[in-house]
Design brief:
The chain has one domain. The protein has three helices and no strands. By secondary structure, the protein is mostly helical. Helix 2 runs antiparallel to helix 3.
Length: 70
């Protein structure tokens, strides 16, 4: 349990990005979306949420500080 909490503590920024991306992806589908159903990402709430989750995680992980090696 301690290892899991330590892993979450180290990577909290990526997890925050996953959550924010999922919410943003769903809201994008809800408010903008694709009316015709031909858009591969925004035609389904599941696809839009998954895409947002991936993009949010990648975006937030860019700001993670790496430990300096001595």
């Amino acid at each position: 349990m301690e290892k899991l909490l330590n892993y979450i503590k180290i990577n909290w920024l990526t997890f925050a990005g996953l959550g924010a991306g999922a919410i943003a992806g769903y809201l994008y589908w809800y408010f903008i979306g694709c009316q015709s159903g031909t858009c591969p990402i925004t035609s389904s709430p599941l696809n839009s949420t998954i895409y947002g989750t991936i993009m949010g995680g990648l975006l937030f992980s860019m700001f993670k500080k790496e430990k300096k090696k001595s």
